[in-house]
Specification:
This protein folds into two domains: about 110 residues, Beta-Lactamase (2-Layer Sandwich); about 50 residues, no CATH class. About 40% of the residues lie in helices and about 20% in strands. The chain is built from five helices and six strands. A hairpin with a 6-residue loop joins strand 4 and strand 5.
């Protein structure tokens, strides 16, 4: 437990006060560092916006190395990317350094604060009543359902809604992620 606390402190120091402050903000769902050093923040109910903070390439690389060290992975010129879950808090972290990118970049995605059901998606107008009923039927008939989409398109939210429809059954679930 003490080593997890120390590692968490190390990562907070490496990520800097701007990022750690954003991670504490309950409305922030994602933080992205672009190659130009700018931080972009996705806030629930507000969308994406550019933060006033800038992070130098050296500090960005230091943060990526700290995450790699913290999860016992290597991130260097030969292995220039890292995908990890941050210790203690569980945010998903993806970091890339040169030569894969012009400058060190990373994205941190926080865990969802709520899991939505198909009914929730229907109420919000994301899917129609017919689509909701079709998907529930497909789930109960044990049909294969493929969930695909671009970055930040809602794949995890949608997959979780489908999983909610399985709740209470004794069906097995297989999730493949690339």
């Amino acid at each position: 437990m003490e080593s997890t606390e120390r590692l968490s402190d190390l990562l907070a120091t490496a990520l800097g006060p701007e990022v750690t402050g954003l991670l504490r903000d309950e409305l922030v769902s994602e933080i992205r560092l672009n190659a130009d050093g700018s931080l972009w923040v996705h806030r629930l109910g507000e969308g994406k916006s550019k933060s006033d903070a800038l992070i130098s390439p050296i500090n960005a690389q230091r943060a990526i190395y700290a995450v790699a060290f913290g999860v016992n992975e290597i991130c260097n010129e030969s292995h220039p990317s890292i995908a990890a879950e941050l210790p203690k808090t569980g945010e998903r972290f993806q970091g890339v350094i040169p030569p894969l990118s012009k400058s060190p970049v990373f994205a941190i995605r926080k865990k969802a604060i709520r899991v939505f059901s198909l009914d929730d998606l229907q109420t919000q107008g994301v899917i129609t009543v017919e689509t909701s009923e079709f998907l529930k039927s497909a789930v109960h008939q044990r049909k294969n359902i493929l969930v695909v989409g671009g970055t930040d398109s809602g794949k995890t939210t949608f997959a979780n809604a489908l999983l909610q429809a399985i709740e209470g059954s004794n069906h097995r679930i297989v999730i493949l992620e690339e």
